[in-house]
Design a protein that fits this description.
Its EC number is 1.4.3.5. The chain is an alpha+beta fold. The chain is about 25% helix and about 35% strand. The protein has a single domain, classed as Electron Transport, Fmn-binding Protein, Chain A (Pnp Oxidase, Chain A, Roll). A hairpin with a 2-residue loop joins β6 and β7. The longest helix has 13 residues.
């Protein structure tokens, strides 16, 4: 018997497929709660779903501000807009921060799997200066080497968003016109 998939996940997978020719279709906005209680937003890259689940994977640098924000308040929301199909998904939930100090061996294995699924060029970013500081990418390539078979570096962190609320548009099709009639909100228990 196959894995049961949430109805919203198939809609999202369809949107990803129909927009896959656009490089930016794998980018979405991740909003966390900043230290001052205000929203803190940034663009991140979708790294896939956790195996046999509806949870999202995001690679990030453990030195970024979002890590401390998530340790303070683990709830976040992503907003994903697909420009060709005019679809927007807002997905909220709790984020699990998985760094090299995580005591759970299964989570450490997930982190390593995500590390090796990334390109060497992507992995090199974790050897550069702290996020938010300017750097010249050519300088990083000249001064830094990375053994492609080596495991994750200390700055590499895997974020796993476990959705508990999904908002997506419900459309009504009339002839050749598309009219947005409402937003569907699904709360996951």
């Amino acid at each position: 018997m196959g894995t049961v998939t949430a109805p919203w996940k198939q809609l999202l997978l369809n949107a990803l497929e129909s927009n896959s020719h656009l490089k930016h279709s794998s980018f979405f906005q991740l909003a966390t709660v900043g230290y001052n209680g205000r929203p803190s937003n940034r663009t991140v890259v979708f790294r896939g779903f956790q195996e046999n689940s509806d949870s999202f994977q995001i690679n990030t640098d453990s030195r970024s501000h979002k890590i401390e924000e998530l340790k303070h308040c683990p709830f976040a929301e992503i907003c994903w807009y697909f420009t060709d199909s005019w679809e927007q998904f807002r997905i909220g939930g709790r984020i699990d921060v998985i760094d090299g100090s995580n005591p759970d061996t299964l989570k450490i294995q997930q982190r390593e799997k995500s590390w090796f699924a990334s390109s060497v060029k992507s992995r090199l970013q974790y050897l550069g200066p702290n996020p938010g500081l300017p750097f010249i990418s050519e300088q990083l390539n000249e001064e830094t080497s990375l053994d492609p078979s080596a495991g994750p570096v200390g700055a590499f962190c895997l974020l796993v968003l476990d959705p508990d609320q999904v908002v997506f548009p419900v459309f009504l099709y009339l002839s050749s016109f598309m009219i947005d009639i409402s937003w569907a909100v699904i709360r996951i228990q």
